[in-house]
Amino acid sequence: MRHIYTSTVCLANTEPVLERIKRYQAYGINAIELGGGVSVDSESLEKLPSLGLNLLLHNYFPPAKDSFYLNLSSPDKIIYQRSIDYILENIQRSGDWGAKLYSFHAGFITDPVGANEKGLIFSTPPATHTETEAAIERFAQSLIPIIQKAILHNVTVAIENNVCRSEHRGRLILQTAEEFLDLFQRVSDPKLGVLIDTGHVDITAQTFNFEAKQFIETLRPFIKAFHISQNDGHTDLALPLDASNPVLQILKTFDVPIVNEAHFEHIDSLATHFHWLKQELEG
Length: 283
Prior knowledge:
The chain is an alpha/beta fold. The chain is about 40% helix and about 15% strand. The protein has 9 helices and 12 strands. The chain has an 8-stranded parallel barrel, surrounded by 4 helices. Strands 2-4 form a two-stranded parallel ribbon. It has a two-stranded antiparallel sheet with strand order 7-8.
């Protein structure tokens, strides 16, 4: 169903998750994706499912006690298994909370060593074809227990497309439609699909010289959800979608969860945009 969600990452700065949710609720925002931009402790985590909200979990929420870069393509066996175990735990948590969708990021060929305002930092050189193929196969194998867990808990799992700037070529997987189609030939299930991040598509389309609209249409049968924002095609600016963006009309042809991930300085601006999106997309 085409529900409009708001990500916890939408507001500037970080605050406790219950405080952010309280501010969202005051403006009528009750469908929330739990992701970045918030801190969480065990007591808050236990309270979340009792708030009567429509919640989704995304990727690295709640943060692991011992922080690590989640990577289902990691060549490091310990990180690889930690990533699988973390996602399995979140699928179970989603099922226990009544959330029907859990989404997570596509993999990296090697593990990041840090991040800056532009994104992830890698210390290794761009991968060879053999290394890329091995990373894709590791990712595909990781999906086998993930799908089994998703079926058990009646949760759909969706892989978010990577954002690839030119300097990240040879470091990521699942950037183009062809890569996703290849993955779904290796492993496929109705509980498995794609979360399309429209901002990621805009940048990656420039890097690989493809049409963003064609990317979405090619993957249409597999699309389970969207993250929406817009940018200049070069940097992931997380700007609010505006009425002139052609993706707005495309979204109206889908009946899946749509998550606003645009960034706002103030809750007033976020709330205004949220209610505009609901009017445009839900009618």
